[in-house]
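User: Predict the complex.
Assistant: Input components as received:
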Amino acid sequence: MAMLSIRNVTKRFGGLVANDNISFDVEQGALFAVIGPNGAGKTTLFNMISGFFAPTSGSVHFDGADITGRPQYQVSEGGLVRTYQLVQLFKDLTVAQNVMAGFHRVTRGGVASALFRPGWMRAQEKHIADKTGELLDFVGLGGRGDMLADKLPYGQQRLLEVARALAAEPKLLLLDEPAAGLNVQETAALADVIERVNQRGVTVLLVEHDMGLVMRVAQRIAVIDFGRKIAEGAPAEIKTHPDVLAAYLGGTEAA
Amino acid sequence: MTSRATTFTRRVATTAAPVALVLVVLLLALNSNGYVVTIVGFAAIYGIFCTGLNFFMGYTGQASFGQNAFAALGGYGTAILTATYYWDPVAAFFVSMIFAGIVAAIIGYPTLKLRGHYLAMATFALGLITYEISIEWIDLTQGYMGYSGIPPLGVFGFELATEKQQLVALALLLLLGVWISTRLRDSRFGRALRSIAGSEPAAQALGVNVARYKLAAFVIAAMYASAAGSLFAHFVGFISPEVFGAAMVIQSFTMLFLGGIGTTWGPVIGALIVSMLPEVLRGMHLKELQDVAYCIILVSILIFAPKGIFALIGEGVAAITRRRATETAPSAAAAQAAG
Ligand SMILES: Nc1ncnc2c1ncn2[C@@H]1O[C@H](COP(=O)(O)OP(=O)(O)O)[C@@H](O)[C@H]1O
Ligand SMILES: [Mg+2]
């Protein structure tokens, strides 16, 4: 059974069909990319997978369970963690505090344990602090922990978002255009991080505009145009697929 | 990530210094006349109220214009239970507090689905409705006349007869309230609240049940408000609807924003300064301008120092430690020092 299975998913906004009968599977351990022109419906698809809103029809199965229409925090609790196309950091918190907040899903404790700080709670806090340092090193933000998140350059903000999402120990990580607005070096750094995340065993589903990034990291690609899936396959197949060339690459490749 | 010395300086700035300030003010008040005792007592009560409000408005980043409703519940709960039914003040205190918490949960459950302006309007309405009830339900509240004959605060049958004894109790309760606030803030619970303030979508994506945590913050704020209302009733011995009117909202907002919303000690520092303000204005023969002064302060703070005085102090300390300890991480933490 696939890690993520999307079946005949459709989303209508009034008269607009933003997603039209889309289906695909993401296998465990895969690094899967969804590409398509602006407004094709990629973020809409992500929103339905992550429970941000429910599909009009169709179903989403994740890790063996039907998660269609479940509230987002429950989907996240199950291990499906996403980032957003527009950076959503906790700006008033430090870089380290941002990552620490990411451990919510994999830690426990409420008001009582916060007040009385039993042994397990202190051990947990120590574990969080240690792992936070490791994650910041992992994405190349070591030594920046005490900075306000807002003060980071944009490229590093995106890396911080990835680190924070990793803190939640996702089974499946959804990244919505993580390279948007990054320069070439920043994109390369991000691609490297995404590959290493995947090598750690995290399944990754990536929406991306940057073809260089997608062709470099993705093992399998689905192409969406005007809300419909027009192709799916390995990067080499996608590069030469006639419909894709016409719909998406056509404009740039033909020039 | 930071040196011992920096951590130590930060501790002094964020814990020792504010505690010392509270104790110094307490000692000064204990050596002054009754009038000063009253003013400082009010400051402590408002400090408790604002520390609670800070859970909801500061840590969680939501707006409530109706927190006076819960102070009224505490105030009238204590008044009715102790003056009419001769309950022990401690029992009345806790029963009122739990009642306020339950009311907050029942009202908050549907209301907190609203956002921004709508939440502000709904909570404001809550304050107005409570105010109307306290005026109209004369059998219960004695209406405009107010409720008098409320005994002083007591502990285990021992009555705190003098105002100064009560002031000591208020100061200790204030410190307890801030201690709870600090502990909760620096925990998984507090991080969940602060992630909601930072970005609701991101909080959701990390598995935070946003609705539940907002409700928890609202209930905690209501319980603090109830405690403040109960303490006011004991301290003054008399309450009326006006005590818990809309002016309380403006005043607590001024305190919160002046002191530093979202910081641990900001609400207390704000409460202290704003409580002194009428006396300063009186000294300058400007008593009538009190409300105008509140508004001017509020607007100036929002424009010039949106993070409040406590954050300014924090930034100052961070700048000093930065200069002193350049060998460690450079920007060691305006934010942390302010927390
Ligand atoms: N919440 C919404 N309400 C109405 N229309 C929407 C909403 N979200 C997206 N759309 C529309 O759906 C289409 C697909 O958008 P989107 O999924 O954001 O595309 P992409 O991420 O591929 O650029 C666009 O026409 C967009 O305007
Ligand atoms: Mg998009």
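Chain A touches chain B through 49 residues (CB under 8 Å).
Let me know if you want any component modeled separately.
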